[in-house]
Amino acid sequence: MFMGEYNHTIDAKGRLIIPAKIREQLGEHCVLTKGLDNCITIYTESSWIELSKALQSLSTNKANARAVKRFYFGSAAELEFDKQGRILVPNPLREHAELQKDVVIIGTGDHVEIWSRHRYDNYNDEVSDSIESLAEGLEGITL
């Protein structure tokens, strides 16, 4: 299970260090793609296969299904770690998440998210004011 928040920087070439604890859980084969809320998402190989199957089962007759498939598959890239534990984040993904220098890497249970520090701080400010009402809308879980 992915947990925690890690602060890192991305260099001008788009290289980003992934914390060792997260790298170990991701394994050798993982996928990086656009995420919701303008972040980047990293999936383990097994999670990506599961998501891919679910997306492929959607009917291409529906415009929203086609759009979601394009969103995830069109931006997906297999990750490769260098000897320093860095990944190269492709430019379209950096633009999607507005990654420039300060980056936050977050474990979210079944996947990892990469956010620009600025976007994540803004998101946190918005959500923290309404977390109680958001939690009330969830069924089947007690926090």
What does this structure look like?
- This protein is α+β, with helices and mostly antiparallel strands and 143 residues long.
- The chain has a single domain, classed as Chemotaxis protein chec.
- It has six helices and eight strands, in the order ββαββααββαββαα.
- The chain has a six-stranded antiparallel β-sheet.
Descriptive key words:
single chain, 143 residues, alpha+beta, Chemotaxis protein chec, six-stranded antiparallel beta sheet, two-stranded antiparallel sheet, 6 helices, 39% helix, 25% strand
Write the layout of secondary structure elements.
Elements: E1 5-9, E2 15-17, H1 20-26, E3 30-35, E4 39-44, H2 45-56, H3 63-74, E5 77-78, E6 86-88, H4 91-97, E7 102-107, E8 112-116, H5 117-128, H6 131-136
The residue fraction in helices comes out at 25-40%
Anisotropy-based shape: globular
Mean pLDDT: 93
Radius of gyration using CA atoms only: 16 Å
Adjacency order of strands in the biggest sheet: 1-7-8-4-3-5
- How far apart lie the N and C ends? 18 Å
> What CATH architecture do you see?
3-Layer(aba) Sandwich
**What would CATH call the homologous superfamily?**
Transcriptional regulator MraZ domain
The multimeric state of the shown protein is single chain
Question: What CATH first level would be assigned?
Answer: Alpha Beta
Compute the number of strand runs: 8
SSE class? alpha+beta
- The helix/strand series, from N terminus to C terminus, equals EEHEEHHEEHEEHH
Strand percent estimate: 25-35%
